[in-house]
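Fill in residues.
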């Protein structure tokens, strides 16, 4: 399958990419790793006249910690996250999530910014960034703005990014103290995407009570979401098996359930509850004593 004809421009800087977007408007699309956009173009689901490649802008690829904050540049690849020593120590949830994404080729080229901007309802990153309570930095013609992750995924394949904006950075407070994290996924046997993916980020106090809870869910609904019912059922509690099971039962509260030939809505809800319980148990075990 061959895409429709298009022009290709490799932007040398974010400013140049923004000017090109302003010039070509709806005719243009940003290209990062190309692992979602190019398949869509080959199927003619997307037919941009101009591709603006940001994948070669070195300044947009980084993982760093500054002032208690972890900052990840938009074109950082899944593989860079998977193999980051900084993240393995500071926030192991992200390297763990990366291992679940596609195969080595996909992880070598695909970017976290591209995945979040694409907002595929079965993508892995959205669950993880919700669990850590990230903010998205968007750069546009009038400068930068930050978008809370809970406001970022708006609909199926749709985000709060406005026309002319580029996702520049993902950032969040570095987890501190006694932390337990986990990402578990029920993979679609054909595509490898998440039928259900659950990311958990727990903070515990010295006595083992839950101080903070972040639970992100993907695959279950038209967009990734925060499982607030689960989080609320954990906060302030001692995290024994009964509490975790009771909390996990809220994994799909109040959401429109995805349904397809492989998994009905009811089955997804069941999987969400079972996988949330698993992720919680794993996170508590990893938090140690
Ligand atoms: C075989 C295969 C298996 C896969 N398996 C999985 C999987 O198991 N789990 C999973 O989560 N994903 C999976 N993916 C998708 C993969 O993770 C993609 O890399 C990712 O979804 C998109 O990132 P990208 O950098 O390739 O973005 P691109 O394809 O370049 O872009 C995707 C979309 O986002 C826009 N965009 C990209 N970057 C930005 C930016 N910085 N600002 C604004 N807009 C932007 C583009 O215009 C386009 O609309 C798979 C892909 C393939 C081909």
């Amino acid at each position: 399958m061959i895409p429709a004809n298009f022009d290709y421009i490799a932007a040398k800087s974010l400013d140049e990419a923004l000017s090109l977007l302003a010039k070509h408007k709806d005719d243009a699309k940003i290209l990062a790793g190309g692992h979602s956009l190019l398949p869509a173009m080959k199927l003619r689901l997307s037919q941009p006249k101009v591709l603006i490649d940001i994948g070669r802008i070195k300044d947009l690829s980084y993982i760093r910690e500054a002032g208690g904050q972890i900052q990840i540049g938009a074109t950082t690849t899944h593989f860079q996250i998977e193999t980051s020593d900084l993240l393995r120590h500071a926030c192991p949830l992200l390297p763990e999530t990366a291992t679940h994404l596609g195969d080595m080729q996909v992880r070598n080229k695909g970017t976290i910014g591209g995945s979040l901007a694409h907002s595929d309802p079965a993508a892995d990153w959205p669950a993880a960034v919700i669990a850590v309570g990230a903010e998205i930095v968007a750069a546009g013609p009038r400068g930068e703005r930050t978008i809370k992750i809970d406001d970022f995924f708006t609909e199926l394949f749709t985000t709060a990014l406005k026309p002319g904006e580029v996702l520049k950075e993902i950032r969040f407070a570095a987890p501190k103290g006694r932390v337990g994290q986990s990402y578990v996924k029920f993979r679609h046997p054909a595509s490898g995407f998440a039928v259900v993916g659950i990311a958990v980020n727990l903070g515990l106090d010295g006595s083992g009570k839950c101080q903070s809870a972040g639970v992100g869910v993907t695959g279950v609904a038209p967009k990734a979401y925060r499982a607030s019912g689960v989080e609320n059922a954990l906060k302030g509690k001692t995290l024994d098996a009964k509490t975790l099971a009771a909390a996990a039962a809220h994994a799909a509260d109040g959401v429109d359930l995805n349904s397809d030939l492989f998994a009905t809505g009811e089955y997804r809800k069941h999987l969400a509850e079972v996988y949330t319980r698993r992720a919680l148990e794993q996170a508590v075990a990893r938090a140690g004593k």
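The mean pLDDT is 97.
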